[in-house]
Amino acid sequence: MHVFITGGTGLIGTAVVAELLGNGHTVLALARSDRSAHAVEAAGGAAIRGDLADLDVLRAGATQSDGVIHLAFANNFTSPEVLAQAIAEETSALTTLGGVLLGSDRPLVTVSGTPWVPGRPSTEADPLSTDGPVGGRGRTVTEILELATRGVRATAVRLPRTVHNNGDGGFAGLLTQIARQTGRSGYPGDGTQRWPAVHALDAAVLFRLALESAPAGSSWHAVDDEGETVRDIAEVIGRRLGLPVEPVPTESFGPLGQIFATDQPSSSAATREGLGWQPTHPNLLRDLENIEP
Questions:
Q1: Residues 62/65/68/70 CA torsion (nearest 10 deg)
Q2: Which domain holds residue 12?
Q3: Where is each NAD-dependent epimerase/dehydratase domain found (predicted)?
Q4: In what order do the strands lie in the sheet with 107-113?
Q5: pLDDT for 131-153, tens place per residue?
Q6: How confident is residue 130, by pLDDT bands cut at 50, 70 and 90?
Q7: What is the pTM of this model?
């Protein structure tokens, strides 16, 4: 396939582009800067300049593709207002991409987070949350999946809170950044809450499988670690950085504080069975050993 991808130069996107190119697909990637465009071209793809707000560019990219993978998101959690703006921008972009593909039976693979379910690991059958700081993303992805009834092979890959590579990325990467800034490896609550995780290279394989063969309207979990405790994560970070490990107030983590403090394990059993996906790269705690002191 000739695949149009947004977010193709980030931690996940870079892995997805390489996975697609390594399996016989060609890639046209949205690039916000000359640097991003050069990175895509160096990897073997083609670039089209623009960002998520450039709806005409998105239409052009989707129109000339055999399928679309959407990954781009302005990961700015500095305030609820800024986060809401990023969600609104993504909603407009996805609505535009879906509109181009109506009636074509072409795939549109979008991304969301694994849902939170009280008392047990979430599964692929659980609905996305439409409440809380990122509830708007859940509403948008749910609407995109409904395009399955309008001739779009829309599917969603649900990512855990930590997608990592070489010790960086996701919520665990944020904990590392905060630890460097504050001089302590902190965690909210009692640290027994669990976060699911996946290596970016394993997640990339799942995006390719969803593009190639996932049924319309389906959701899949890119989860390797069902749930590592936040305290265990903080302890590895603290040891690697030579910093004390201790609980800190949930409010210290700003808009993400309540999400950080939530127990949110997730299963990928149905994904492994349905698409034959099998993670092969290091799990989170092993990968965090790559953190540079």
A1: -50
A2: 2-162+198-225
A3: 3-215
A4: 46-49, 26-31, 2-6, 67-70, 107-113, 153-159, 219-221
A5: 876 778 899 999 999 999 999 99
A6: confident
A7: 0.95
